[in-house]
Amino acid sequence: KIKKENKLWPGTEKIVRKYSYLHAAISKYHGGWKKINKKYNLYEGNNWANIMKVLNNKNSNTYYLTGLIVSDGHISKSRNSITISLKKSDEHILKEIYNWLNMKKGFNIVNTKRNNEELRADLHFFGKKIVKFFKNFGISDNNKSFNQGRLIIPNKYFADFLRGALDGDGCITADIKRKVFRIGICGTKQFINFIRFRIKIILNLNELGHMYSVGNIWNVYWNKENSFKIRDFIYKNDGLFLKRKKRVDFSIDNI
Questions:
Q1: SS3 string of the chain?
Q2: Where does the pLDDT of residue 5 fall: very low under 50, low under 70, confident under 90, or very high at 90 and above?
């Protein structure tokens, strides 16, 4: 229809939101996606002003979300958007963020396999101001998986930030039979070093953690004693957390 009429008829923005495959068609026949986005302000309408009011308070949830975006988020410069993707079984944390920010849209469940055996939960943020807000913390929008470096996080909220990062790309292993309790996280070399040195200073740990690489991805994990210190540190405040990874029922006495 776009090709036939060669014009943007009323209601185009609704169609674009619903059918993402029309992006290419609109770009081809109407001078590029940026031009369409600018004319119709398609993604700025995601209640961004109210979202920014909540984010600008910069509380523990703000820094938790920053950590989650660093680990499991994606920033698109061309569409001025941020997307967080998790397994459907972890959708509760995205819904909690959705409700906290008073969002009107942006949450959806996506089929990742044709047989519908595997589902993914996505949360989308649209708007230049929202993207700029998170980039100001130091989040990279240039191939984040390989270029993410240090971030600007105050000590007061570092526990919340680290909890978000661990909920995304971290691992908390607890096994009473094997007497194992271990916390680890993966990312770029610069990002992992940022975490290692910062957490050692804040908690006065007796180690920087054991660091190793698998290809271009770097990992760090801490011994049992320090893992318990980190666990207690990230869960000391009330705030957002992924239920699946919270291990407060394990103590150093029973492992």
A1: CHHHHCCCCCCHHHHHHHCCCHHHHHHHHCCCHHHHHHHHCCCCCCCHHHHHHHHCCCCHHHHHHHHHHHHHEEEECCCCEEEEEEEHHHHHHHHHHHHHCCCCCCEEEEECCCCCCCEEEEEEEECHHHHHHHHCCCCCCCCHHHHCCCCCCCHHHHHHHHHHHHHHHEEEEEECCCCEEEEEEEECHHHHHHHHHHHHHHHCCCCCCEEEEECCEEEEEECHHHHHHHHHHHCCCCCCCCHHHCCCCCCCCCC
A2: very low
Residue 78's CB is within 10 A of a number of other CB atoms, namely 10
pTM over 0.85: no
Joined together, the tokens standing for residue 14 give 């609704």
Which distant-in-sequence residues (6+ apart) come within 8 Å of 251 by Cβ? 228
54, 56, 61, 63 alpha-carbon torsion, rounded to 10°: 160
Please give the pLDDT value at position 104.
83
* pLDDT band at residue 105 under the 50/70/90 scheme: confident
